[in-house]
């Protein structure tokens, strides 16, 4: 589950391109020159880039709304999606190219102009859009949204970019890299610290050689995966390989089938489904059990667990401390018949107020979200190592609180959408180290048992625990982590 805290990508408020004086004059007089036009898909993409930069918006939430408001047809909606996500994914690489072409650091360029330049560079170097169209429309966009002076600067920079091929630009910016990791960062559009965190996580499985495959997968658009809530809907073709509830979108567009299902079918990554199914499959289910989703927002995993609980006469409760997210949880659970209580408590103290009450608990902990960079491309540029240091103590407290809420013999699934070792095995090992009433189960064995097809979980014996790490390049899922812990049964 992604951390809701959002960080502003700060740039000096006074920094402007060379056309500063004319830009200020144009802004002051509101003179924009003759009427200019920009293709609707480009305008939508630009508006989302601005929202991400200025308002810390999430593109996966802002883009559908912007497309709907603009009334784009399917073809233009597809173009707007490609332009938005492609530009955000490769922002670091494009900023290096823009800095070279503009002969100044990208962070000294007006953010509104810089977003337009990023969008244009993506079109010039990574799409089949004609160069003249990419340049001319981007110049028009800046003239309309910023100033005529800034549009002249934009025109000059983009014409320099257009003179060289993508390969020539890549070679040029890599020449200035200070290390092999910096070169890899420029080539794959990932921050250096993220690359190193991924390398360590893969090395823990003895698979460090898969790093570039992982980085490449992060830059590919993920296929839409749907979940059919058990007992309420049936998965259709094409089926996904691992989770029994997962299937692809028939015909590509999921809107029709989601709407017709009344909420019993919705979009959910197969990895997210698999970790919830693993908690349900970790031991035989007894009627009358009580289950809890401790950090339930926005509610997708809670709905899946609720549907399974309904089939087995089990009571599910959910908890979400943020009121807006708690409302999302309640909305997600409406498709599941019956009453499901949604608490709004601090998960860190929930175990103290509900000691020993639950038989199974899901802790889908707030995390950096580094495992979902395919879906949230802006996150790679928004997160920093400081986020990890801030989140780990919270993750430890949440997991320990969940153990407090477990009945003897109860099982907790600790889940993150991040492969960073500090957030995954580091948290698990800290809880195991500080508590004598909990032990780790073999999550690999559980996931292998419930999987529809053989699944490569890197079970080569090199890792210290029986945890599961899923990967985009290996499993086609988000990089979900799962560990299963059991509270010591009575009499042991």
Folded structure, characterized:
By secondary structure, the protein is of the alpha/beta class. It is 50% helix and 11% strand. Strands 4, 5, 6, 7, 8, 9, 10 and 11 form an eight-stranded mixed sheet that branches. It has a three-stranded antiparallel sheet with strand order 2-1-3. The two termini are 34 Å apart.
Number of distinct helices? 22
Beta strand %: 5-15%
Low-confidence regions: 3-33
Our Rg estimate from Cα atoms comes to 24 Å
Please describe the biggest sheet, giving its number of strands, its sense, and whether it closes into a barrel.
8 strands, mixed
How helix-rich are the residues, as a percent range? 40-55%
Distance between the ends:
34 Å
Number of strands: 11
* Alpha-beta classification: alpha/beta
**Rounded mean pLDDT score:** 91
Overall form: globular
Q: Which keywords apply here?
A:
492 residues; disordered N terminus; globular; eight-stranded mixed β-sheet; alpha/beta; three-stranded antiparallel β-sheet
């Amino acid at each position: 589950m992604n951390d809701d805290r959002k960080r502003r990508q700060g740039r000096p408020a006074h920094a402007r391109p060379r056309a500063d004086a004319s830009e200020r004059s144009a802004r002051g007089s509101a003179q924009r020159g003759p009427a200019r036009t920009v293709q609707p898909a480009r305008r939508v993409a630009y508006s989302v880039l601005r929202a991400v930069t200025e308002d810390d918006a999430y593109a996966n939430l802002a883009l559908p709304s912007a497309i709907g408001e603009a009334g784009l047809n399917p073809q233009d909606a597809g173009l707007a999606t490609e332009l938005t996500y492609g530009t955000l994914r490769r922002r670091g690489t494009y900023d290096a190219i823009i800095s070279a072409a503009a002969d100044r650091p990208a962070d000294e360029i007006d953010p509104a102009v810089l977003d337009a330049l990023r969008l244009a560079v993506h079109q010039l170097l990574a799409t089949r859009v004609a160069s003249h169209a990419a340049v001319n429309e981007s110049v028009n966009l800046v003239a309309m949204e910023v100033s005529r002076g800034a549009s002249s600067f934009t025109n000059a920079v983009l014409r320099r970019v257009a003179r060289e091929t993508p390969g020539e630009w890549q070679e040029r910016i890599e020449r200035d890299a200070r290390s092999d990791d910096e070169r890899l960062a420029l080539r794959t559009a990932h921050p250096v610290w993220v690359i190193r965190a991924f390398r360590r996580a893969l090395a823990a499985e003895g698979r460090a050689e898969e790093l570039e495959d992982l980085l490449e997968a992060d830059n590919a658009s993920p296929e839409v995966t749907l979940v059919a809530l058990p007992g309420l809907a049936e998965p259709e073709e094409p089926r996904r390989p691992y989770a029994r509830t997962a299937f692809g979108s028939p015909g590509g567009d999921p809107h029709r089938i989601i709407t017709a299902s009344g909420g019993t079918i919705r979009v959910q990554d197969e990895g997210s489904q698999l970790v919830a199914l693993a908690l349900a499959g970790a031991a035989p289910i007894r009627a009358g059990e009580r289950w809890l989703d401790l950090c339930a927002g926005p509610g997708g995993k809670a709905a899946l667990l609720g549907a399974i609980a309904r089939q087995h006469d089990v009571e599910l409760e959910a908890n979400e401390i943020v009121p807006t997210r708690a409302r999302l949880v309640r909305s997600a659970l409406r498709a599941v018949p019956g009453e499901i209580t949604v608490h709004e408590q601090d998960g860190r103290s929930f175990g103290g107020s509900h000691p020993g009450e639950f038989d199974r608990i899901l802790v889908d902990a707030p995390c950096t979200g580094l495992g979902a960079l395919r879906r949230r491309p802006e996150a790679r540029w928004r997160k920093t190592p400081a986020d990890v240091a801030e989140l780990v103590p919270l993750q430890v407290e949440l997991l320990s609180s969940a153990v407090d809420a477990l009945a003897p013999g109860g099982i907790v699934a600790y889940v993150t959408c991040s492969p960073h070792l500090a957030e995954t095995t580091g948290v698990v090992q800290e809880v195991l180290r500080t508590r004598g009433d909990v032990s780790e189960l073999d999550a690999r064995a559980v996931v292998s048992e419930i999987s529809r097809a053989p699944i490569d979980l890197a079970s080569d014996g090199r890792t210290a625990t029986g945890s599961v790490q899923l990967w985009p390049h290996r499993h086609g899922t988000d990089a979900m982590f799962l560990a299963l812990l059991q509270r010591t049964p009575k009499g042991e």
